[in-house]
Amino acid sequence: MALVVLAVSGAASSVTNSDVQSRVNADIAEGKPIVVHVVVALCDNVNQGIVPVPKALGNGQDPKSNLYWGALYGVRTHLPRSANWTRLDILRPADTRILERVVMYAEVNRDQLAVPVYIVADAWDGAKIREAMITYLEMTAGRASETVTVKRHSETHALQAGGASHVVVYVGHNGLMDFRLETPSPASKESPAKSAIILACASKSHFVDHLHTTGAHPLLLTTGLMAPEAYTLDSALRSWIAKGTTAAAIEGAARAYNRYQKCGVGPARRLFWGQQ
């Protein structure tokens, strides 16, 4: 298992995509699945500094029709309906700030091998966006780990999620445009290498220093305003798992974003950034 290496406490992490891929390859060889944990801060007209959206889409306490969760291109809706992810039954966690949890499964071809991939996605109360972002950054540092148990084909699987995931994802409004967070503590030397995706407006300029501190590899961040919808996440993840490179994740994200937003592939490529 590849480990995060920090030169000194508080220094920028030297973790790279190659480190994460070494962990991925080792886990695949041992028959372990790839686990992705997604923190979704529900869109909230009242509690977030956003341009208001229609009421049903912007009720941060109602996941079922929320723009980032239950709407057409939300994480819970788009992935199983349009991207061939199988939704598995799961109980909502005890944390009352998480209004709904879903686990989804797919297989992605990598070097002629069908790799099992699980997404654990949490819909956070939109009024709790600060806590959601703090928890997300803790995950990037290898903390806030948990074991999520699911059943598939009558078999029980214990997924190492949260800070133990291979990829941790944030989806939603960039709260750092509204408030500041304290710099998170660095990862421990024992923290397994992981990649970070942040689908929020201008996430590179607001988050990259935090990720260097927490020891997560910045796989996919954004350089400008964007719609954080699930088709981008799906394509970026599949491309990265299949080909194992940051460039593949960026290209996958850009092509999906252009397909749905009709913005041109070139501008879409410039919207996404990742560290090699």
What does this structure look like?
This protein has 276 residues and is of the alpha/beta class. It has one domain (17-273). The protein is 30% helix and 25% strand. The strands form two sheets. Strands 2-3-4-1-7-8-9-10 form an eight-stranded mixed beta sheet, with helices on both faces. Helix 5 runs antiparallel to helix 6 (246-261) and helix 6 crosses helix 7. The longest helix is centred in the C-terminal third of the chain and has 16 residues, at 246-261. The protein is globular, with a radius of gyration of 17 Å. The two termini are 19 Å apart. Residues 1-12 have low confidence and may be disordered.
Task: Name the features.
single chain, alpha/beta, disordered N terminus, globular, about 30% helix
Question: Number of helical segments?
Answer: 7
Kindly report how far apart the N and C termini lie: 19 Å
- The parts where pLDDT drops under 50 for at least 5 residues are 1-12
Look at the structure and give the mean pLDDT.
Answer: 94
Decide which structural class fits the backbone: alpha/beta
Strands side by side in the biggest sheet: 2-3-4-1-7-8-9-10
Helical coverage, percent range: 25-40%
Number of domains: 1
**Which of globular, elongated, flat, extended, rod-shaped describes the shape?**
globular
Number of strands: 10
Computed over alpha carbons, the radius of gyration is: 17 Å
β-sheet strand percentage? 15-25%
- Strand count, sense and closure of the main sheet? 8 strands, mixed
